[in-house]
Amino acid sequence: MNNEAEFKSFKFNVENMVAHIVLSSPEKRNCLTRDFWRELPLAVKYAESRGDIRCILIRADGAMFSAGIDLALLDSLKVLGSELDVSRRADYLRRTILSVQNSISCLEQTPIPVVAAIQGACIGGALDLVCAADIRLVEIGTTLTPLEMDLGFVPDLGTVQRLTSTLPYGVVADWLMDCRSLTGSDANSIGFASRIAQSPQELTELAKNLAERIARRSPIAVRGAKEIMKFTKAYGVEASLRYTAAWQSGAFPGDDINECFDARREKRAPTHDMMVDDRSLYGIEDKGRGDIT
């Protein structure tokens, strides 16, 4: 399979069953442009369509992760639909915000686990982005800064919701309402980040190793764990236990389970078949979608 796909706003390549989405405009502080919001869901859908991708790693080139949404894009939103009447303008702006929210939510909704490796500054919309990852890794020099309230509006792309569903209410209120920067150590201590590295180089190594270890495990088990964790957050423990029983009854025993038991007996690493290659389902077989090559 082709291990690279072409996008305007980031690099995309596949190594050892891990799809690397790399913010690659350090000269522009890795700002999240209009192209980024359009292309991210395409990249995730492309990863889902390939049977050989078992983890997604989001990282960045340069000294900082991202300065957030391109300010030129924010300026354009201020006058969006200004020629329309008040009700139509409100509807137009609401749908615009929903479309950008959906661009980020694709990371949460994909069955593939998503790891975010965050170095340097992570500001505003970039914080919304990493909030949607399953696992966040930081380096000690990282600063995580919600910017929106300093610009006079509520963060509207998921930071408020995802942080409040995960961290104590008072911790989130203190962080967001004060628009203060958390260090990598702060993020690790409150549970926002699960691991911390001492340098950007160590972070990259840590993130790649973790993503590749996840990718080597049974994709059925890993995808199931992500689905059940999301279900538990939404519906609680009792409902999730019942859901897990139904899920497990369909997956146990399967080829991956048998392979894990055989490998353990034979003292070797297990290997698992690819997931179904369903690119034809997504209409991208034989270059059927021109924006991904």
Describe this structure in words.
By secondary structure, the protein is an alpha/beta fold. The strands form 2 sheets. The protein has a 7-stranded mixed beta sheet with strand order 1-2-3-4-5-7-10, with helices on both faces. β2 and β3 form a beta hairpin. It is globular, with a radius of gyration of 20 Å. InterPro entries: Ech1-like (IPR045002), Enoyl-CoA_hydra/iso (IPR001753).
Write the layout of secondary structure elements.
Blueprint lengths: L3 E2 L4 E6 L2 E6 L10 H16 L5 E6 L10 H8 L7 H24 L4 E5 L2 E3 L1 H7 L3 E5 L3 E3 L13 H6 L4 H9 L4 E2 H7 L4 E3 L2 H17 L2 H17 L1 H15 L3 H12 L27
Parallel strand pairs: 3-4, 4-5, 5-7, 6-8, 7-10
Antiparallel strand pairs: 1-2, 2-3, 8-9
Organism: Zhongshania aquimaris
Protein name: Enoyl-CoA hydratase/isomerase family protein
Family: Belongs to the enoyl-CoA hydratase/isomerase family.
| SSE series | EEEHEHHEEHEEHHEHEHHHH
Strand line-up of the largest beta sheet? 1-2-3-4-5-7-10
- Show unreliable segments: 285-291
Number of helices: 11
The end-to-end distance, rounded to whole angstroms, is 11 Å
Rg result: 20 Å
Q: What is the general shape?
A: globular
- Write down the overall mean pLDDT: 90
Binned, the helix content reads 40-55%
Strand content: 5-15%
Number of strands: 10
Q: Find the structural class using helix and strand composition.
A: alpha/beta
Largest sheet: 7 strands, mixed
Pfam families: ECH_1 (PF00378)
InterPro entries: Ech1-like, Enoyl-CoA_hydra/iso
Family: Belongs to the enoyl-CoA hydratase/isomerase family.
Organism: Zhongshania aquimaris
